[in-house]
């Protein structure tokens, strides 16, 4: 198994640890971050999310640069991304840090685009990620990281950076989803 696939699998293996850190009340203390208190376990979960998000970029770069793209990687990489983002967003709703309707739209878009990709794959068509899709991913990762960190360091000055980033991510999620379907609508017409 090549290094990009190993990184992708490591990202998948980090997800249960991430979920545990946010789901159980570990008594490791907390830090005052202005208007709120950030539990140490939630800070650790945020670091794991940031690390996992970084491995997504690294494995893709490494696979393309050294021509190590495999069918396993094509399957696992988007799966790992969707599992990580979905887990984080659902937990943020549970924690009261993200509105459920925003999370529903984001996750629904991911399911819709994955469905379109599956139909295309069945027809032997590979649908590449667009620039808007990459912007969507970056804004989602920034928004989720900021929400997991309870808006730190902006919490000290009362600036709602995390909330603003969530709505920017929502905007690019919707825009990139529409763009993806408009550019690839022919796939649905060609499917049998």
From TrEMBL:
<protein>
    <recommendedName>
        <fullName>CDP-diacylglycerol--glycerol-3-phosphate 3-phosphatidyltransferase</fullName>
        <ecNumber>2.7.8.5</ecNumber>
    </recommendedName>
</protein>
<dbReference type="InterPro" id="IPR000462">
    <property type="entry name" value="CDP-OH_P_trans"/>
</dbReference>
<keyword id="KW-0594">Phospholipid biosynthesis</keyword>
<comment type="pathway">
    <text>Phospholipid metabolism; phosphatidylglycerol biosynthesis; phosphatidylglycerol from CDP-diacylglycerol: step 1/2.</text>
</comment>
<keyword id="KW-0444">Lipid biosynthesis</keyword>
<keyword id="KW-0812">Transmembrane</keyword>
<keyword id="KW-1133">Transmembrane helix</keyword>
<comment type="pathway">
    <text>Lipid metabolism.</text>
</comment>
<comment type="similarity">
    <text>Belongs to the CDP-alcohol phosphatidyltransferase class-I family.</text>
</comment>
<keyword id="KW-0472">Membrane</keyword>
<dbReference type="Pfam" id="PF01066">
    <property type="entry name" value="CDP-OH_P_transf"/>
</dbReference>
<comment type="function">
    <text>This protein catalyzes the committed step to the synthesis of the acidic phospholipids.</text>
</comment>
<dbReference type="InterPro" id="IPR050324">
    <property type="entry name" value="CDP-alcohol_PTase-I"/>
</dbReference>
<dbReference type="InterPro" id="IPR043130">
    <property type="entry name" value="CDP-OH_PTrfase_TM_dom"/>
</dbReference>
<dbReference type="InterPro" id="IPR004570">
    <property type="entry name" value="Phosphatidylglycerol_P_synth"/>
</dbReference>
<feature type="transmembrane region" description="Helical">
    <location>
        <begin position="12"/>
        <end position="28"/>
    </location>
</feature>
<feature type="transmembrane region" description="Helical">
    <location>
        <begin position="40"/>
        <end position="62"/>
    </location>
</feature>
<dbReference type="InterPro" id="IPR048254">
    <property type="entry name" value="CDP_ALCOHOL_P_TRANSF_CS"/>
</dbReference>
<dbReference type="GO" id="GO:0006655">
    <property type="term" value="P:phosphatidylglycerol biosynthetic process"/>
</dbReference>
<keyword id="KW-1208">Phospholipid metabolism</keyword>
<dbReference type="GO" id="GO:0005886">
    <property type="term" value="C:plasma membrane"/>
</dbReference>
<keyword id="KW-0443">Lipid metabolism</keyword>
<keyword id="KW-1003">Cell membrane</keyword>
<feature type="transmembrane region" description="Helical">
    <location>
        <begin position="164"/>
        <end position="182"/>
    </location>
</feature>
<keyword id="KW-0808">Transferase</keyword>
<dbReference type="GO" id="GO:0008444">
    <property type="term" value="F:CDP-diacylglycerol-glycerol-3-phosphate 3-phosphatidyltransferase activity"/>
</dbReference>
<feature type="transmembrane region" description="Helical">
    <location>
        <begin position="83"/>
        <end position="105"/>
    </location>
</feature>
